[in-house]
Request: fold
Amino acid sequence: MIQLLANTRSKEYPVFLSAGAMKEAGNLWRSRGREGKIVLITDSNVANLFLGPVETAFTKAGFAVKAIVVDAGEEAKSLAEATRLYSELFRMQTRRRDAVCALGGGVVGDLAGFIASTYMRGIGLVQIPTTLLSQVDSSIGGKVGINIAEAKNYVGSFYQPDMVITDPELLKTLSRGQLVEGLAEVVKYALLAGADFFEALESSYEEFLVMNMAFVEPMVRRCIEYKLGVVSDDERDYGRRALLNFGHSVGHGIETAGKYTAYSHGQAVALGLLAAVRISEQVYSLSGDYSARLQSLLELLGLPTRLEGIDPAEVIATMSSDKKADDLSANMVLLKAIGEPVINCDVDAAMLRREVDRLVTGD
Ligand code: GLY
Reply:
C-alpha cells in the first residue's frame, strides 16, 4: 500500500493509494488509533456499487456503521440537505469521537466534508473518493462546502480529512463521460508538473481509457503528490495554491456562461487549458508546440477543443464576476515552460477576448 503524506498547517494525514485499498478502510482507520462509529455518507448511485463493501470493511474492523444516502447530483450540495444531515447525525447520537466517511465523488466529498467540519464544531473525516476527479483533486486539500442559489461553493471551510483512501480500482465502474471529467484535471497536472508527465499521457493515454492499473495508479499518484505539495505550502489559498486553477479561469467562465449544462466542468477546463497554453505561448514564448500537442491529446481523450453555442462575450463577463478575480482584468495562471507555472498573470483583455474567440473559430 502506498502511503502519501499531507503535511498542512492544520493537520498531517495519510493518503493511502492502491488498487483494492477500499477493502482495508476499517483496518487503516483502526491503525490510526481511531474508535467510535462511522457515519457513511454516500449518494444513490455510489450506494448501489460500494456501500456494502465499505460497510463490511469498517464492521469487520470492529466499527459500528450507519449510512446516509443522498440523491445523486449537484442539488445535494445545499443548505437544506446539510440541515437534514445534521438532524440525521443528531438522531444517530453522533459524538465528537465518531467520524463521517464521505464515499463518492466531488459532490459527496464536499457535502460530507462540510458536515464533518461543522457538526459539533468538527468531527473526524475519512474521504473515499470514487471518481477520477475526486481522487486527484477534491478529496485532498480540505476544501469543503455547499452551493447557494447564486453561486457554487460559496459557503464552506478548509477542513482537512484525517485519512484519504484512494482506490483506483473503483474507477473501473465510471462511464466514459465521468472518466473524461477527471482526465481534464490529469492533463492540467501534467502541464503543471513537467514534460515527462505530459509525454507519458501522449504516448499511453489509451492505457487510461482501458483502465490499465499499471498505468493509472502511477498517474493518479503523480497528481496527488503534486496537489499535496501545493496544499502543504499554502493550505488556505493565499498564494501558491492558485496554481491548481490553471485552465480554470476561462474554464469557469465557460461553465458559468453555459449555465452548468452546456459544458461539464472537465470539458470547460479542457477548453480553458487550451486557451491558457495559447496565451502562455504569446506572453512567455512557451516553446515545444504545446498548444497543438495539447489539442490533439484532448481530442484523443474525447475532450472538446472547440467552443460551441456560447457567446465569448458572456464567457469574459462571467470571468470578471468569478470569486477568484480581484478586479476586471483576467488573473490567470500561465506557463513559462511545462512544469514552470506562474500565478497572478494579468492578461490583457484584448488577448483574452482573441483567445476565447479562437476557441470558437478554431483558427
Ligand atoms: N481544486 C482547487 C483546490 O483545491 O485548490
Q: What stands out?
A: The chain has 13 helices and eleven strands. Residues 213-233 form the longest helix (21 residues). Residues 137, 141, 143, 237, 241, 244 surround glycine (CB under 6 Å). The first strand starts at residue 2 and ends at 7.
